[in-house]
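Summary of Year 1 activities. Much of the first year was spent building the evaluation harness for sequence design. The harness presents a backbone, in tokenized form, and records the residue chosen at every position. We chose the following record to illustrate the format because it has been used consistently in internal testing since the harness was completed.
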């Protein structure tokens, strides 16, 4: 009798062992693994084993094959049978979780939502699964851009975590909600929420890595909030704390001690992903502040780390990090006079977006914006207009919209014959009245654009008023590129007005700042002015030196211009519709690294 009871367990364990051996072989032998698991059904197993085997088959087929219909069939059976078996939560909720993932992959979101809602409803006595399923449904709503529903679910999760005594997971829910509120620009709700999160994080006593990871999440939100607002100087203390925090995490050992509360069994991001993220926000800060060599250094470090991670990890967030880093370094290249390299990296972003439709959907507007900026740098103004117009059509993000409009206005000013369109744009980004976003940096840039227009129209006093406003704002937040641009334009105005001394007082610091950034266009402009200024003041030696500098900058920019325009990727400037063109292949150029070109 005893042997009859043990027999099913022995055959089951044997088949399971074989299946696992084949699954973990190198390379995995998935077909043999599936055969072993399917053999279990030949023995007419009890419901518990039947449901678990359907789950295992569904999971293996989902993760390792393209046979999604068969995977779905097994997962649906696992979900159905496990609901009839008491005390079988892990199989039941894992089946629901994977099945809803599969539905989303098949674009059957309307099947995934009720499944997750049902699982959430019946999992309230199982804290780990209840929290995990709430996160999953909130993520699904976020991907659908339904941030209100996602925020509601995260609020429910935070309250549930508080009730079951998990302050750690409560903080994760609240920080996730804070992230979505920042995306929605609901700043009045963000501030009290982040204050509460800060208190919870500081008071929580638990696993040091979990505590520090909460601090990283909290500080990343604070830093991005400041950077979104264009407050480059104000963010420095938070950014420093964040960098110290990631250094602390990298010295801590991952203790595999499981938390006593099952609701605490969550990680926000792996340690290695957090390191890349901190590099990324550091690059964002350096770009906005105009420390372009620093931005390049951190981009190189981050991309090197990403390449290593992508060999072992196919997480989509890594490709997102890579695209954002490339977007920033492309901006950097355009400013420092490396257009050919920037163009090859734009092509690299196109290739990454070809591999992921979701990545393209999220970054199409940025990609066309980058192409628009490249077009300005090679003086293809019609193409620049077409790229910016396409980007405006594709974005719903207010800051990006304002940034694009500002750059499109600069195109119309340069063309000189688009008065109606220009005034229509300027009305929508009036820095003195109802400016569309709270960004300090973008508002300062809008004053600069007004100053540039007034300069071209010969209204010099009005131009000076706008540019002094830009200078005041850019000095307040260390916006070095805007400061350099404003100084050189003011210097040009004083030169035209015949006030050479005042002009010199503007152009010399503009040149120093542009060299420090380094900003090739401002250096070219400043050296031309210095040549004329010194000639007018009778400083022959200084005039000769400035003329030599101007010639050197001109030569560098001309050579780079010719190199960029001769690349096959230059044809991307004509692409304004649909997915990125496949036929344009990037050259074997550099594979490393949005700040304003104004």
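For this record, the design step produced the sequence shown next.
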């Amino acid at each position: 009798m005893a042997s009859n009871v043990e027999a099913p367990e022995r055959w089951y364990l044997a088949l399971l062992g074989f299946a696992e051996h084949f699954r973990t072989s190198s390379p995995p032998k998935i077909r043999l693994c599936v055969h072993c698991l399917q053999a279990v059904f030949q023995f007419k197993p009890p419901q518990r084993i039947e449901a678990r085997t359907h789950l295992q088959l569904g999971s293996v087929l989902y993760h390792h094959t393209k046979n999604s219909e068969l995977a779905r069939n097994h997962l649906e059976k696992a979900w159905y049978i496990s609901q009839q078996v008491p005390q079988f939560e892990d199989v039941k909720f894992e089946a629901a979780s994977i099945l809803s993932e599969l539905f989303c992959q098949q674009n059957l979101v309307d099947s995934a939502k009720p499944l997750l809602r049902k699982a959430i409803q019946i999992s309230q006595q199982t804290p780990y699964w209840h929290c995990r399923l709430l996160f999953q449904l909130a993520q699904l709503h976020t991907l659908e851009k339904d941030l209100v529903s996602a925020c509601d679910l995260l609020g429910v999760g935070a309250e549930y975590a508080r009730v079951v005594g998990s302050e750690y997971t409560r903080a994760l829910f609240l920080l996730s909600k804070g992230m979505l509120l920042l995306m929605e620009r609901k700043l009045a709700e963000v501030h009290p929420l982040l204050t509460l999160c800060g208190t919870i994080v500081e008071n929580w006593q638990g696993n040091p890595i979990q505590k520090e990871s909460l601090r990283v999440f909290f500080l990343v939100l604070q830093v991005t909030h400041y950077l979104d607002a264009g407050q480059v100087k104000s963010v420095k203390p938070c950014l420093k704390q964040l960098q110290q925090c990631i250094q602390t995490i990298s010295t801590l050992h991952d203790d595999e001690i499981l938390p006593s509360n099952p609701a605490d069994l969550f990680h926000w991001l792996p340690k290695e992903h957090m390191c890349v993220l901190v590099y990324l926000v550091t690059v964002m800060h350096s770009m906005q502040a105009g420390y372009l060599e620093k931005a390049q250094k951190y981009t190189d470090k981050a991309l090197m780390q990403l390449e290593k991670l992508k060999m072992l990890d196919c997480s989509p967030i890594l490709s997102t990090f890579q695209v954002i880093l490339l977007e920033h370094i492309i901006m950097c290249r355009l400013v420092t006079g490396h257009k050919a390299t920037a163009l090859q990296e734009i092509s690299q972003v196109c290739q990454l977006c070809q591999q992921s439709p979701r990545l393209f959907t999220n970054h199409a507007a940025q990609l066309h914006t980058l192409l628009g900026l490249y077009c300005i740098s090679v003086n293809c103004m019609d193409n620049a207009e077409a790229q910016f117009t396409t980007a405006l059509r594709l974005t719903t993000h207010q800051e990006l919209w304002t940034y694009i409009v500002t750059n499109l206005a600069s195109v119309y000013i340069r063309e000189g014959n688009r008065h109606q369109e220009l005034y229509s744009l300027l009305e929508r980004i009036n820095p003195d009245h109802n400016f569309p976003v709270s960004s300090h940096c973008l508002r300062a840039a809008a004053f600069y654009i007004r100053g540039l227009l007034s300069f071209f129209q010969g209204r010099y006093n009005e131009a000076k008023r706008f540019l002094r406003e830009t200078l005041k704002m850019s000095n307040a937040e260390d916006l070095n590129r805007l400061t350099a641009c404003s100084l050189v334009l003011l210097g040009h105005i004083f030169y035209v007005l015949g006030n050479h001394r005042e002009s010199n007082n503007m152009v010399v610091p503009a040149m120093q700042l542009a060299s420090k950034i380094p900003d090739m266009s401002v250096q070219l402009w400043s050296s031309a002015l210095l040549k004329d200024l010194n000639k007018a003041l009778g400083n022959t030696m200084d005039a000769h030196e400035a003329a030599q500098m101007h010639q050197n900058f001109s030569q560098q920019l001309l050579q780079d211009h010719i190199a960029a325009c001769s690349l096959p990727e230059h044809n991307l400037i004509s692409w304004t519709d649909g997915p990125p063109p496949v036929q344009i292949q990037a050259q074997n150029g550099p594979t490393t690294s949005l700040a304003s070109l104004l």
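The radius of gyration is 29 Å. Quantitative recovery figures across the full test set are reported in Table 2.
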